[in-house]
Design goal:
- By secondary structure, this protein is α+β, with helices and mostly antiparallel strands.
- It folds into 2 domains: 46 residues; 89 residues, PDZ domain (Pdz3 Domain), CATH 2.30.42.
- Helix content is 44%, strand content 26%.
- It has 6 helices and 9 strands, in the order αααβββαββαββββα.
- The strands form 3 sheets. A 4-stranded antiparallel beta sheet has the order 5-4-7-8. A 3-stranded antiparallel beta sheet has the order 6-1-9. Strands 2-3 form a two-stranded antiparallel ribbon.
- β7 and β8 form a beta hairpin.
- α2 packs across α3.
- The longest helix is centred in the first third of the chain and has 28 residues.
Length: 156
């Protein structure tokens, strides 16, 4: 019984956070009819809460990564134009050595991606090796919905 109540409270908290984020996004965008837009988003949050949370509450930084076969470290394959990673200065070819203060050595790709992702608006510290220099970035995540609208620079 106690676990069920805890689970329901967690779901309610996530939905509340999702609605607050959605209201802030609508206010920032200044839609023509904010009430209709808010009503539509609230309806989506209730009817398909998992998808809503995934797209609006869960965020990322905007990089495509792969594991380098020789070093077994994650390497940036592409950076989305206008993404938080792009704005922070990350580049294609950067080798990611630490995320949130944790070394990426020995991590599987899925574990690495999970560490980059998290709550929209929260920041994640990332250390990269570029050539012989280590660079530290503090990257503020943006929503997955926002990242889906970005394109990757094929010429970088």
């Amino acid at each position: 019984m106690r676990r069920s109540l805890t689970g329901l409270l967690l779901i309610a908290a996530v939905l509340l956070i999702a609605v607050i984020i959605m209201l802030r996004q609508n206010a920032a965008q200044g839609p023509a009819n904010p009430l209709r837009s808010t009503e539509s988003a609230a309806r989506q949050a209730i009817t398909n809460s998992v998808e809503f949370v995934k797209n609006r509450v869960t965020g990322g930084v905007g990089v495509a990564v792969a594991i380098d076969s020789s070093t077994k470290l994650p390497v940036v394959g592409a950076v989305a134009i206008g993404s938080p990673a792009n704005e922070a200065g990350m580049r294609t070819g950067d080798i990611i050595t630490r995320i949130g203060g944790i070394a990426t050595t020995g991590l599987f790709l899925k574990q690495f991606v999970e560490r980059l992702r998290g709550f929209t608006g929260a920041s994640v510290p990332v250390t990269v090796l570029r050539g012989t220099n280590y660079l530290d970035f503090l990257i503020r995540r943006t929503s997955m919905k926002s990242l889906q609208e970005k394109s990757f620079n094929p010429y970088e």
